Amino acid sequence: MLNQLAKRIPKAHRIFYRVLPFIALLVLAKLVLHRFGLELLSINAIFSGLIGANVFLMGFLLSGVLSDYRESERLPGDMAAGLATLADEMQSLHQRTCAPVALAALEHVHTLGNTIHQWLHKRERSRGVMTLISGLNEHFLAIEPLTQANFIARLKQEQSAIRRIIIRIHTIRETEFISSGYFIARTTTFFLLLGLVAARIEPFYESLFFLVVVSYLLLFLLFLIGDLDNPFGYYEQESSEDVSLKPLEDALTDLQDRLVKERQRVALSPGASDPAARDAH
């Protein structure tokens, strides 16, 4: 039930709903301390400066993760272009020669694209993707006698580009940007919010207002930075700021159409029902 509820929440609002329980907990703690007269701290200029310094630190972290996010926005499109280029060569070679090895190579590219899509959702292991990328070498060797050497060189370049993209995505989603920076931002935020809860501000409704506003700002920034730090969090239900996979999904649809078309070409070609004739091709 919780999974279905999470899916119904618009992505733009997910961080807001993740922050709300923490704000409610802080307000409840504030009410308890006020009820028993345990608000022992007072707000001064130093406290305000600490809040400003914490926001500045979060701005530094946010600018850092944004640079990786902008780069990540290009990676699905670059990967889709590489798969499409491989498919172009395999399909044109099959149309020209009707060689089974060309169709097998096209099928391998299709399998590779689907596996990459599954890997992005963490349904496949990185080792499996890299094995399929390396497996293209066998198909390159098989089609080498049927085409020009510069075409094979171009295919190898696309293979290398796809491998680099996979390694880069793996690094981005598995590496936290400046772990020590996150630690100090989280701990400072914790102590600042604790100070707001224990601070005495009159009248009391102003104290609640500032607690809600400041805690919302700081917690939202923390969650936003953590979300942007992994632009490929499709496997995380609470993730809201993921880069679009539409270019890759469109490329997979195109690969499927190409494969169906070439299989139909084989089925409709003369001698398709004759094993001896098919082997002669």
**Total of DSSP H or I helical runs spanning 4+ residues:** 10
- How many domain modules? 1
Q: Poorly predicted ranges (pLDDT <50, ≥5 residues)?
A: 273-281
Using only C-alpha atoms, the radius of gyration works out to 28 Å
List the strand order in the largest sheet.
Answer: 1-2
Strand tally, please? 2
Alpha-beta classification: mainly alpha
Strand content: under 5%
Share in helix: over 70%
Largest sheet: 2 strands, parallel
State mean pLDDT (0 to 100 scale). 89
Keywords: Membrane, Transmembrane, Transmembrane helix
Task: Please give a structural write-up.
- The protein has helices spanning 2-8, 14-35, 45-97, 100-120, 126-143, 149-174, 179-198, 204-228, 246-268, 275-280; strands spanning 41-42, 199-200.
- The chain has 10 helices and 2 strands.
- It is mainly α.
- It has one domain.
List keywords for this structure.
single chain, 2 strands, 1% strand, transmembrane helix
Layout of secondary structure:
Blueprint: H1 2-8, H2 14-35, E1 41-42, H3 45-97, H4 100-120, H5 126-143, H6 149-174, H7 179-198, E2 199-200, H8 204-228, H9 246-268, H10 275-280
Parallel strand pairs: 1-2
Helix pairs in contact: 2-7, 2-8, 3-4, 3-6, 3-7, 3-8, 3-9, 4-5, 4-9, 5-6, 7-8
